[in-house]
Amino acid sequence: MNIIISNSSDIPIFKQIKNALKEAICTGVLQENEALPSVRTLANDLKISFLTVKRAYDELETEGFIKTIPGKGSFIAPRNMELIREEKLKEIQDLIEQIYKISKIANIEEQEIKEIFQIIFEEE
Amino acid sequence: MNIIISNSSDIPIFKQIKNALKEAICTGVLQENEALPSVRTLANDLKISFLTVKRAYDELETEGFIKTIPGKGSFIAPRNMELIREEKLKEIQDLIEQIYKISKIANIEEQEIKEIFQIIFEEE
DNA sequence: TAACTGTTATATAATCAATGTAACAGTGAG
DNA sequence: CTCACTGTTACATTGATTATATAACAGTTA
Asked: Is the CB of A79 under 7 A from strand C?
């Protein structure tokens, strides 16, 4: 598994870790029941505090993506793809609602938005 | 002009003010060259610090939406609709790019996104 | 037992948003 | 000119969030 973080990003490190792990699950880099690196190992690799990694793991566990067993480690929870897919669909829905609100405020036509949509999605 | 702010929102107050004023400009509530409430007046109305209002005004000025003259007050700059329309189009483009990235990560089909898009935009 | 795991508590630092207060300067009506 | 309004600036402070360092504690397993 390969995680790249940036401390110059405006996205908090613990959130970057969460996103990277979710992406690894989706792309199959991490399989069900597979062990994650220990909080200290990952912290050393990324040259950050283990508390920051722990926070990421804690939140991922709360959200149901991983399971942590004290003394043993953290593991990818089963049925993860569906979970993340649901979550990402919800994110997309929120983003489209934002677009809708902006278009109402700025008097932008639906057609114009569809064109932008096409341009971005058609680039391979 | 009517501005409603929420301090329980995760959007900073100064940004809520900026958004509210941009919306007021777009909907024609605020016309070109019209005076904005003074920083202290608006601060009193909203029961917040005048420094928070000043910050909103300062950024709006930097972005070219208003003009502030020391001793006189702040005024809506001309050619605002076009400015905001450009800005909002850019925001929408960024949001669609976010959607694109999420769809790639979570293996969500373009068709599925279009359906969500239709549902949200068709509600009158 | 030793070397891993995760957990917890405490303290600290940096940044950002927001505030309070005070003093200063420009504008314009009376 | 004076007064009451405008904006400006400089401090100090609070609270929340992010991230860190350190230390001690507890479960797992070879």
From this structure: no
